[in-house]
TrEMBL record:
<dbReference type="InterPro" id="IPR001830">
    <property type="entry name" value="Glyco_trans_20"/>
</dbReference>
<dbReference type="GO" id="GO:0004805">
    <property type="term" value="F:trehalose-phosphatase activity"/>
</dbReference>
<dbReference type="Pfam" id="PF00982">
    <property type="entry name" value="Glyco_transf_20"/>
</dbReference>
<dbReference type="GO" id="GO:0005829">
    <property type="term" value="C:cytosol"/>
</dbReference>
<dbReference type="GO" id="GO:0003825">
    <property type="term" value="F:alpha,alpha-trehalose-phosphate synthase (UDP-forming) activity"/>
</dbReference>
<dbReference type="GO" id="GO:0005992">
    <property type="term" value="P:trehalose biosynthetic process"/>
</dbReference>
<feature type="region of interest" description="Disordered">
    <location>
        <begin position="483"/>
        <end position="509"/>
    </location>
</feature>
<comment type="similarity">
    <text>Belongs to the glycosyltransferase 20 family.</text>
</comment>
<protein>
    <submittedName>
        <fullName>Trehalose-6-phosphate synthase</fullName>
    </submittedName>
</protein>
């Protein structure tokens, strides 16, 4: 058994962290994905030696060779998993996107519990497990990401393999009454319990998971408090941890200080005549609460005449899953609402909503973050929401206001300093917009400074370290109680039934 510092580690996620495209002569090209996760994991993978296993997003010929070449540049191996079109349909579009995504975000209507989807999910998970078995020895750590791959530990163990196994859930874990509607609930939960460590974004997610385990297995016992607890069932132990994911704070702040980006931010402010700029950036998805946000703006303009001509909402919507009729309809609804608001209130030189339907280049997004007075981060339910953290990191002038949904995972760490709203309460969000526009500069600075200090301290690198420390250790006593720190509230023991304030129906100021 190697020293833990030497263990290699293998990452599994549905998608490989590369964008596959075509060059000028039609040849396949790969570029590194832009997310914080790959930024944080790439150096650790490079140092320890390891591999990233995932679907490249295409089954075109030449992808394997492309990944092999890209591996040399990346410093770790990229191992593409190949899935047939039917597998992608049943496993990804079906089970993952029509069952797990809506249900875990507490949307029950769009769920389509087709047994064929479950079969495809099992088959695809077996394909990933096979790739992991080929890449990992029993001395390695296999770190599996997200809801697409919840069966991998069980399938690896069925092959007689026993590397150290960690899992991180990027999306929320729903309350028991919702989760238990899944026809294959027991198989999913039992498979998850085969991981040595399961990481959640928030205490609430972990509490929900534990409730589900207790409902299915009344004899399950929990031991410990704080970031890591142990769950024992039939003599087997699984550790459950809370690891709120973060961003590369320094990289965002540095880009925001770049002279070119600052100039773009200045140009944006000038183009909007230095009005009070509200900003939203979301993937097109029903969990993000964009229609409710537009309703809130409409309510604010109706109720508070002093805002007319003074505020603008810049709403960026990143195209996503347009081939799905529900998503297309949602986009049309949003466009109709934007048209209605602008049609009703615009006057020469001012339209209340500036709508952008495309993926902005990274630096332009940063310039918008830096230029805006108030970010409206109002998802109806969200695992964490990195836009909230990126907005704060880019606010180097420390004058922006973060308006944050109680139902975003980020609320656990930031609720004391953000302006908290219930996104379903359009009157409450309208009030928050009014109050934000009137907030004194001193208060804006105090709040933003406190938010930035939390994210600076708990950045993506600290997140990776916390998870790996927990995954490599075997004893509860190995963990400093405050390692993930900012969210730990000594006043509350949220797992003793009395939930934290953002779980309650009342708005938190
Ligand atoms: C899942 C969970 C959890 C947005 N607009 C543009 C753009 N973005 C980037 C942001 C941000 C990312 O997209 C969105 O991240 P989120 O965290 O908000 O959401 P999901 O993609 O749903 O991620 C979520 C996350 O996993 C991590 O665990 O926080 O709750 O659902 O990074 O910067 N990027 C560019 N142009 C845009 O217009 N370039």
């Amino acid at each position: 058994m190697p020293n833990d510092k030497k263990r290699r580690f293998i990452v599994l996620s549905n998608r490989l962290p590369i964008a596959v495209g075509r060059g000028p002569d039609g040849e396949l090209t790969a570029s590194q994905g832009a997310g914080g996760l790959v930024t944080a994991l790439a150096p650790v993978l490079g140092n320890r030696g390891g591999a990233w296993i995932g679907w490249p997003g295409t089954s075109e010929k030449g992808v394997t060779a492309l990944c092999r070449n890209f591996s040399r540049q990346a410093g770790y191996f990229l191992r593409p998993v190949s899935l047939t079109e039917a597998e992608v349909e049943g496993f990804y579009r079906g089970f993952s996107n029509e069952i797990l995504w809506p249900l875990f975000h507490e949307f029950q209507m769009p769920c389509n519990f087709l047994p064929a989807y479950w079969e495809a999910y099992r088959t695809a998970n077996a394909t990933f497990a096979k790739a992991a078995a080929a890449a990992a020895t029993d001395d390695d750590l296999v770190w599996v990401h997200d809801y697409h791959l919840m069966l991998v530990a069980r399938l690896l163990k069925a092959k007689g393999r026993s590397p150290r196994l960690g899992f991180f859930l990027h999306i929320p874990f729903p309350p028991a009454d919702i989760f238990l509607k899944i026809p294959w609930r027991r198989e999913l939960v039992d498979a998850l319990l085969d991981f040595d460590l399961i990481g959640f974004q928030t205490l609430r997610d972990r509490r929900n998971f534990f409730d589900v385990v207790k409902r299915l297995h009344p004899s399950a016992m929990r031991k410990g408090r704080g970031e890591i607890v142990t769950l024992t069932l039939a003599g087997e132990t699984t550790r459950l941890g809370v690891f709120p994911i973060s961003i590369d704070f320094a990289a965002f702040a540095d880009r925001a200080r770049d002279p070119g980006v600052r100039q773009t931010a200045k140009d944006i402010r000038q183009a909007f005549d230095n009005r009070f700029l509200l900003f939203g950036a979301d993937r097109l998805d029903y969990t993000k609460g964009v229609p409710q946000r537009l309703d809130a703006l409409q309510t604010a303009l109706t109720s508070y005449p002093e805002l007319r001509g003074k505020v603008c909402l810049i709403q960026v919507l990143v195209p996503s899953r347009e081939e799905v009729p529900q998503y297309r309809a949602m986009k049309e609804d949003i466009e109709r609402m934007v048209g209605e608001i602008n049609g009703r209130w615009s006057r020469p030189g001012w339209a209340p909503v500036h709508f952008v339907y495309r993926n902005l280049p990274h630096d332009e997004l940063i310039a918008y973050y830096a230029a805006s007075d108030m970010a409206l981060v109002t998802p109806l339910r969200d695992g964490m929401n990195l836009v909230a953290k990126e907005y704060a990191a880019c606010n180097v002038a420390e004058t922006g206001i973060l308006c944050l949904s109680e139902f975003a995972g980020a609320a656990m760490e930031l609720h004391r300093h953000a302006v908290m709203v219930n996104p379903f309460d359009v009157v409450g969000v309208a009030e928050a917009i009014r109050d934000g526009a009137a907030m004194a500069p001193g208060q804006r600075r105090r709040r933003m400074r406190a938010i930035r200090a939390i994210i600076r301290r708990h950045d993506i690198f600290q997140w990776v370290d916390a998870f790996l420390d927990a995954a490599f250790s075997t004893h509860l006593g190995d963990f400093p109680r405050q390692s993930a720190g900012a969210w730990a509230d000594p006043e509350a023991d949220p797992e003793a039934g009395q939930g934290p304030p953002w779980d309650t129906p009342d708005r938190v100021a």
